[in-house]
Write a structure and sequence with these properties.
alpha/beta; transaminase activity; seven-stranded mixed sheet; 2 domains; 39% helix; globular; Polysaccharide biosynthesis protein; 14 helices; Aspartate Aminotransferase, domain 1; pyridoxal phosphate
Amino acid sequence: MRVPMSSPDLSDLERQAVMQVLHTPTLSMGEQIEAFEAAFCRYLGAKHAIGVNSGTAALHLCLLAAGIGPDDWVLTTPFSFVASTNVILYVNALPIFVDVEPTTGNIDLTQAAQAIQDLIEGGTAARRWLPRRGVGRRKGQLKAILGIDVFGQPADWDTLRALAAPYGLKLIEDSCEALGAEYKGRKVGLLGDYGTFGFYPNKQITTGEGGMIVTNDDEGASLMRALRNQGRAPGDTWLQHTYLGYNYRLDELSAALGLAQMQRLEELLRRREQVAAWYNQRLQNIPGVEIPYIASQTTRMSWFVYVIRLAPGIDRAGVASRLAERGIPVRPYFLPIHLQPYMQTRFGYRQGDFPVTEDLGERGLALPFSGVMSEDQVDYVCDALRQVL
C-alpha cells in the first residue's frame, strides 16, 4: 500500500463552482472574492475579511497595517513555518525570538513576559534577547507580538493580550494552520488585532494557493485592501495608486473554490478530527511515540497535520527511511527557523540558542494526514511504525 502525505478534500461542489466561473468573463476582482470574504465574516463574526493570494501575503499586510517598519522589533518564536519570520524581515524589522512550550510548541509565556519587560527596559536587559549580529545601528523598539497557532492549536491569547496591552503592542495572530480551532470557546482569528489564514492544499480548506486576513479594525482593513491591489485606494482610478502596493489579489477561480469549501467546513473539520482520533487510539500505547498534546484552553483542535514526537535516542532519519520503503512518506516538522542557513548567516544563531524548539525539531515527525484518509490507511501507517520501532 502507498499512502499519500496529504490530499485535498474536494467534491463536485468545488468542481462545479470553478467551472461556473470559467463560463463568465470575470476571472479577477469579481463576485466570488466578495462572497468568499463575506463567508469568513459570517463564520468568525468579523467586520472585515480580506482575501489574498497566500498566508504569507496576509501576514505581510498585517505587519504593514500595524505600522511595523525599519528597526522595529517583533516578538515571535522560531518554531514555525519560515513565513512568520520572513514577513518581519520583509518590512526591515527585527524578529526577536523566544522559545516555545515543550507540550504545545506555542510561545512560552513566561519567557515572553520576561522578554517584553527587558526589551522595554532596554540596555543590558534587552541585549540578552537580541541576536548576535544584524541588529542595526539604530536603537530598536518593541512594537508587536506575532503569535502562531502551531499545528492548529491556539496559543494562549488572553495572556498574550494581557502582556501586550500595557505597552500598546500590536497583536498579530498567525492562524494559517488553525482554521476552525477554538480557544476557550472562541474561534481563532479575532483573538489579536489582526488574524491570518492560509489555504495551501494541505490546509483545512484549500484554494490551491491563497490566504485571508480578518480584523475588526476599519482603518487597517481599508489600508490592506488597497495594498493587496497595487496600492489602489478607494477613489483612485484604474491607473492611480495612492500607496506602494503589491499584487496580492486572490483570483475568482480560487475564491470560488474557497467559497465552496467554506460551505463544507464543518464536514471537513470533522473528517480530520476522525482521522486524528484513529491515530490517537492506535499510537497512544506504542513505546517511543508521543502523540499530540491538547491544552486545556483548546476547546477545539483544528487538525492541520498530525505530528508525533519520537523518544530521545530514536534514529528519526532511519525510521523515516524504513517507512518510505513501505510506501509511507513522513516529514520532520518543524525545522527550527533560527537554524536555517540564511538566519544563521545574517544573525549569528547557533545550535543551543533555543533548546526546546530544537528538541521539538529533532524529534517531531509528521505522519500522512488528510481528511480523506481511510481507517485502513491509518492502520497501515500505525502498524508499519510499530514494526519499524
